[in-house]
Amino acid sequence: MLDFRKWYRAHGAVVGQYSPATEMWNTGVAVPNLQGIQIAPMMENDEKNSYGSREHLLSVFVGLEVTLDFVGTHDPSVTEMTGFSSTSSGSGASETRRRRKQGGQNLPYFGLIVGIEAEDEGDVHLIIPYVKLDSLLGLEVAAENQFVVPNVTAKAARLRLADNTLLDLYNELEHATLTAPATDLDTAFADLQIA
Of 112, 115, 126, 133, which is closest to residue 185 (Cα–Cα)? Predict the structure, then answer.
């Protein structure tokens, strides 16, 4: 049943900030506003010629570039990805929220799990333990009558723990039935250790 899949939409996503000091992730926060995701493998390439003709090719998988598109912004998941917390005051019609973005701050690493539904039942979870944003959420406001779709780019790298254990750069985990992404990221990412 899992040999041929037709994936067509994200049905859930979870993010959780990673702590290098404890080598653990925060409890995953659901991302309720993910519109789409693009994952592009990053490769390093080389080639060599012998006696006037190409004989050797090198193509090494070294990372991922991840683009996330959102419908609006969701404060808890933005905090997990950026480390920028917000403060709220007032209530009802007078409620306000402020998120300070100071220059000179390094963004944190976070883990990401995205569930993508298959047309013929089931899903695949893209499990990426070590991601860092390349930029903050970008906004482009249209001239008229179009939703603002914030997007962000990030890169994923392989994670090496203090004991020299390596975690996979990313995994695809397929399920025969639709399954919600895990929120216990420590457990979800434990299976990614390279033997």
Answer: 112
Q: What is the chain's Cα-based Rg? A: 20
Q: What DSSP assignment string belongs to 68-103?
A: EEESS--HHHHHHHH---EEEES-GGG-EEEE---T
In whole angstroms, give the CA distance from residue 109 to residue 99. 19
Indicate the domain borders of the chain: 7-88+97-190
Q: Which of 84, 80, 58 is nearest to 68 (CA)?
A: 80
Q: For residue 184, give both structure tokens.
A: 């216990």
One digit per residue, the tens of pLDDT, for the chain of length 195 reads: 566 678 888 999 999 999 999 999 999 999 999 998 999 999 999 999 999 999 999 999 999 999 999 888 888 999 999 988 778 888 888 888 777 767 778 899 999 999 999 887 889 999 999 999 998 877 667 777 777 778 899 999 999 999 999 999 999 999 989 999 999 999 999 888 876
pTM: 0.86
